[in-house]
Amino acid sequence: MQMIKKKAERNVEEFLEHRRKKRWIEQRSGSYCFKLYARSLYITWGGVENWIWNCFKETSEENIEVAKLSHVCWLDVRGKLEISDLSTGVAYEIVYIVKLTKGATGWELPITLRLSVPGKSTKERQISLLDRAKARGEWIELNVGSFVAEDGETGEVCFDLYEHGGHWKTGLLIQSAVIRPLP
């Protein structure tokens, strides 16, 4: 009985992990890639009424959850991944996949994208979502930055999307963050 219970718990954990993260090997390079869905990202106030969690079909057989911003004045979305999970000697890029709804408001100030790699300096850059999201209602990629996964490195690669300007924002959808080899 105990063995059946443990197997059932493992199956639930695997199911939940599949809804949070996807890992595959890119055919072109043979390198590991990751997609961290919104549930695996740290979203400030993500568990309260400021964000709405909706499911949609990513592929014909896969439902995923996305986070839809209802309203916040302090936007903070963070992700992290163990650098040792990546293929060594490979140049990677990290992108957030987001969408602005047609009625989105409060995006006049730029957002900041930050990348922290163990043993290297932190990189930050600002972009305007209004400039990037001309076709509202379409998924866009926000490039956080790139790095090389070196052999023997340990620690976490951290990537953030934030805007702490203090004015209210609405209508941003967060689908995922993707870590993939540079083209």
From TrEMBL:
Q: Which InterPro entries match?
A: PP2-like, PP2-like/Lectin
Q: What GO MF annotations does this protein's record show?
A: carbohydrate binding
Any one Pfam family here would be PP2
- Please state the span of the N-terminal signal peptide per the UniProt entry: none
PANTHER family recorded: LECTIN-LIKE
Q: What is this protein called?
A: Phloem protein 2-like
Specify the taxonomic lineage.
Eukaryota, Viridiplantae, Streptophyta, Embryophyta, Tracheophyta
